[in-house]
Amino acid sequence: MSDTAGGAGRRRGRDETEEERADRMWQELIQEVRVAQMGVQILFGFLLTVVFTPKYDDLADTDRVIYIVTVVLGACATGALIGPVSLHRLVSGRRVKPQAVQVASRLTLLGLVLLLATTTASLLLILRVATHDGFVPFLVAAVVGWYLLCWFALPLWTRHRHTSR
C-alpha cells in the first residue's frame, strides 16, 4: 500500500489495520492530553485557593462574577480533559477503540476550548485586579488572539496546506 503520489519514493499514509491505527492514534492523543491536563489542573488548583485569601473579600462584584465563571470553566475544562482517561478505562477490552478515539478526540478539543475560556477569564480577572486600567480588555483580546493563532489557526492552516486531497 505504498502510494508515491508526486515524489520519488515519497510514501503517503501508513500500512496499518484499523485497530493498529486506533492504537497509534490513542497513544498520540493521550500524550497530548497529558500536556493539557497538567496545565488545566495547575490553573484550576490555583483558582480554588483564591477564594480563601484576604484579597477576595475586597473584590468588586464584577470581579467576583468573573472569578466564579472562571472556576466553573476550569472545572469543566478539567472534566473534559480527564474524560478520555475515564472513557478508555470504561471501554477497554470492548473492541471499540476506533470509536473511543473519536469520542476522546472530541472531548480533548472541547477541553482545549474550555481551557482557552478559563485562561482568558483568569487573565481578565488578574489584570483587572492588578491594574484597574481601561487597556485590560484590549490586552486580554490580544492574548486571546495569540492563543487562537497558536492553538487553532496555525494547526488548521497546516492541516489544510499539507493534507493531500
Plain-language structure description:
Helix 1 (18-50) runs antiparallel to helix 2 (61-91), helix 1 (18-50) runs parallel beside helix 3 and helix 2 runs antiparallel to helix 3. This protein has 165 residues and is mainly alpha-helical. The chain is 76% helix and 0% strand.
Note the topology.
Layout: H1 18-50, H2 61-91, H3 97-131, H4 136-162
Q: Helix segment count?
A: 4
**Biggest beta-sheet profile:** none
Oligomer: single chain
Mean pLDDT equals: 91
Straight-line N-to-C gap: 17 Å
Query: What is the H/E order?
Result: HHHH
Structural class: mainly alpha
- Percent of sequence in beta strands: under 5%
Tell me briefly what this model is.
The chain is an all-alpha fold and 165 residues long. 76% of the residues lie in helices and 0% in strands. The chain is elongated and about 60 Å long.
